[in-house]
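Query structure, 132 tokens:
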């Protein structure tokens, strides 16, 4: 199973000139090795890019991406990893979603497809990453 980070899907939705081709190619390649999924946090991050929930669900269906729930162990790991980040003087705001994504990849043993590898490498070093 490959967990897809929100930035990869936003690349496609916004047809990002720098990243859309890379993101699309990586999604196709990852599908060759197993199912693709996102979690409810990534779903929420994607929501503003769509006019309604039906449009978002249609996009995910077309991309053959399922939404997988977050377990309590995942939520706990996300919270403790975020606390370590803050204690190490991490200053970026709006990053808690990344901790939920990384924690789920780690607790489930999934590969993570992302363009933002640095935080995942430092906070979840055991997660296998697909990244530029």
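Result returned for the query:
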């Amino acid at each position: 199973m490959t967990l897809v980070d929100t930035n990869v899907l936003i690349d496609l939705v916004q047809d990002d000139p720098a990243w859309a081709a890379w993101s699309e190619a990586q999604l196709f390649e990852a599908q060759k090795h197993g199912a693709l999924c996102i979690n409810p946090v990534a779903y929420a991050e994607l929501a503003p890019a769509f006019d309604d929930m039906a449009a978002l669900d249609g996009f995910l269906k077309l991309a053959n991406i399922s939404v997988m729930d977050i377990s309590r162990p995942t939520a706990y790991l996300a919270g403790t990893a975020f606390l370590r980040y803050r204690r190490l003087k991490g200053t970026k705001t709006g990053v808690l979603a990344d901790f939920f994504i990384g924690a789920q990849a780690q607790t489930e043993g999934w590969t993570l497809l992302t363009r933002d590898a640095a935080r995942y490498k430092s906070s979840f070093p055991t997660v296998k990453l697909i990244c530029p």
